[in-house]
Amino acid sequence: MTSRTCISERLRLPLISAVAVSVIALSGCSGGAGPQAGPTATAVVSPAQSASGSASATPSATPTPKPTPVYKPADAKGRAQNVPVPVKPALADKNTKEGLEAFAKYWFALLNYGFETGDLSSWEGLTSGSCEFCNVLKRSVAVGYKEGRWQVGGRLSTPSVEPNFKSGAASQQVVVQVIQEETQYYKADKSVGRSPAAGSNTASVVIATYSGGHWAVSDLHPIR
User: Fold this and answer.
1) What is the C-alpha separation between 89 and 101, in angstroms, rounded?
2) Which of its termini does the chain have fewer beta carbons within 10 Å around, N or C?
3) Do the Cβ atoms of 155 and 116 come closer than 8 Å?
4) pLDDT in tens, the chain (224 residues)
């Protein structure tokens, strides 16, 4: 090999190396473009983002709360509406002085509910059929609400309840102060019925007996 050949070979080798490096670089850029295009074209969505997107797309419906019925006392235009039903205290079933007092208040609350609505069913369940004055009250309410009639006023309150409890006695006595408002009566056609009953402030003696785990009124005596 002549010196000219050696010089020619030395010049060719760097040229070949440069071309090879260029080819490798170009192939590297060309080959890398494919995988890089994937993530750029399709964004990766995390589970949290997916759930957030679904929630915003389909919001959950919020239930509309039902309006609370509003109590409306009776007037010349019609009956009372949404009258609260008296709730029986747990103490009212206890065979004690405190239980007897709680029962007497509850019993008169049911009677007042009957005067406002004409419904004495719960009151009757705690009242003996042999109680004469109780039957008078029952008939009075029945007449006041007969054939579409209704009553206005007549509400009862019991500001004083004094049980005379004697342990072991077959029956117990409770002295109750009963205040009743004036009562007006209306017919189904909204005309005035019989003359109004005047209000009163009297005392009554309630006779109660305890049996089967609860109290019941066996008699009622107004004090004249």
Assistant:
1) 11
2) C
3) yes
4) 444 444 344 434 333 343 333 333 334 434 444 444 444 444 444 544 544 444 455 556 788 888 889 999 999 999 999 999 999 999 999 999 999 999 999 999 999 999 999 999 999 999 999 999 999 999 999 999 999 999 999 999 999 999 999 999 999 999 999 999 999 999 999 999 999 999 999 999 999 999 999 999 999 999 97
- 12 within some domain: no
Q: Supply 189's token pair.
A: 């056609």
CA distance 190 to 152: 12
Q: Is 195 helix (H, G, I), strand (E, B) or coil?
A: coil
- pTM given for the model: 0.72
111 is a domain residue: yes
The span from the CA of 143 to the CA of 155, in Å, is 17
Q: 35-68: string of b/e by CB count within 10 Å (b at 16+)?
A: eeeeeeeeeeeeeeeeeeeeeeeeeeeeeeeeee
| Measured CA angle at 212 (ends 206, 216), to 5 deg | 15
Q: How many domains does the chain have?
A: 1
> Is 188:122 a contact under the CB 8 Å cutoff?
no
Domain range enclosing 137 = 107-223
* Structural domain includes residue 41: no
Q: Indicate whether 182 belongs to any domain.
A: yes
CATH of the domain at 203: 3.10.450.50
What's the DSSP call for residue 218? E
